[in-house]
Amino acid sequence: MDVNTSLVSQAYANARTAAAPQPQGDGAADGFANLATNFMATLQEHEATASAAMIGGADPHALVQALASSQMAVETVATVRDRVVEAYQEILRMPV
After folding, report:
1. Which of 52, 8, 80 shows the shortest CA–CA distance to 72?
2. Are 91 and 53 in contact (CB under 8 A)?
3. Are the C-beta atoms of residues 77 and 60 closer than 8 Å to each other?
């Protein structure tokens, strides 16, 4: 029973920190900087996992998981890029 109680309390503590209000930064510039930093960190981590799997240091399941996560990250960045370009084009179409 103690193990379940500690797992529940740990999950609750993690949920509280995730739901806590975050301090406001400079706005969009900080958001894009954080996005780029997280994207690069994710790709570097998955590249390390792929390298380890090639030399036998990681299991194939970790490799598949890293590849799927990398694909999701690249698709997310491409979608954000497309939305930004679309918004920019919409601004250019506005009458002056």
Report:
1. 80
2. no
3. no
pLDDT tens column, 29-71: 787 788 788 888 888 988 888 888 888 887 888 888 888 988 9
Alpha-carbon gap, residue 85 to 47, rounded angstroms: 28
Give the tens place of pLDDT for each residue, 35-45. Answer: 788 888 888 98
What is the number of other CB atoms lying within 10 angstroms of the CB of residue 64?
Answer: 11
How many domains is the chain partitioned into structurally? 1
Task: Give the H/E segment covering residue 6.
Answer: helix 2-19
Distances (CA, A) of 93 to 60, 82, 85, 86: 49, 17, 12, 11
Spatial neighbors of 62 by CB under 8 A, at least 6 apart, are 49, 52, 53
Q: How many CB atoms lie under 10 A from the CB of residue 10?
A: 10
In a domain, 71, yes or no: yes
Domain that holds residue 77: 25-93
